[in-house]
Specification:
heterodimer, A: mainly beta, four-stranded antiparallel beta sheet, 0% helix, 55% strand, B: mainly beta, 10 strands, 44% strand
């Protein structure tokens, strides 16, 4: 069965960086784009960007351009999301989500369990 | 516009039917997908495409679309359906980068 298992909670100081991992299993890792979505406390879902695990190519939401880096290690079927220059409003749960698309259809069919990142001095 | 608009909160009596809507220009060109999120849990896909349910999603969940509006309908709402519901679609760059603000469903 498909599983996305993320790394554990992190506490960081403002200005620091955080790197969250997402280990995939149960499917061909390079066959599906991996996306990252975050959710601030009590708020909605916010798309951050995506990585093509096959090529390593990325697309980032404009809001995070210059601060986010998405990478992958195909040898261990793991995707990473690194966010730098952290601010207090980056405090959120960060999710990885597998993306599937077929013609007119597109959707996130599997999600990681989420990683809470707390930014506090 | 790349925004998707949802009503913040909706309520339904147990066993009745409720429709949750999502409006946005991108929905004229792309189907929405819908996600259910319960407190402290990751989102779960409930509807995608024209009206498709992933395996394990009860058939009381259905989807439809007309013009710039996508709808998620729950026919015979159950207590366990109480959750936040989010729609998603593509943005102007073609990425699935737009989520609605979410609708909190209360089952009375």
């Amino acid at each position: 069965q498909v599983q996305l298992v993320q790394s554990g909670a992190e506490v960081k100081k403002p200005g620091a960086s955080v790197k969250v991992s997402c280990k995939a299993s149960g499917y061909t890792f390079t066959g599906y784009y991996m996306h990252w979505v975050r959710q601030a406390p009590g708020q909605g879902l916010e798309w951050m960007g995506r990585i093509n695990p096959n090529s390593g190519g990325t697309n980032y939401a404009q809001k995070f351009q210059g601060r986010v880096t998405m990478t992958r290690d195909t040898s261990i079927s793991t995707a990473y999301m690194e966010l730098s220059r952290l601010r207090s409003d980056d405090t959120a749960v960060y999710y990885c989500a597998r993306f599937d698309s077929s013609g007119w259809y597109q959707y996130f069919d599997y999600w990681g369990q989420g990683t809470l990142v707390t930014v506090s001095s | 516009s790349s925004e998707l608009t949802q009503d913040p909160a909706v309520s339904v009596a147990l066993g009745q039917t409720v429709r949750i809507t999502c409006q946005g220009d991108s929905l004229r060109s792309y189907y929405a997908s819908w996600y259910q999120q319960k407190p402290g849990q990751a989102p779960v896909l409930v509807i995608y495409g024209k009206n498709n349910r992933p395996s394990g999603i009860p058939d009381r969940f259905s989807g439809s679309s007309s013009g710039n509006t996508a709808s998620l309908t729950i026919t015979g709402a159950q207590a366990e359906d109480e959750a936040d519901y989010y729609c998603n679609s593509r943005d102007s760059s073609g990425n699935p980068g737009v989520f609605g603000g979410g609708t909190k469903l209360t089952v009375l």
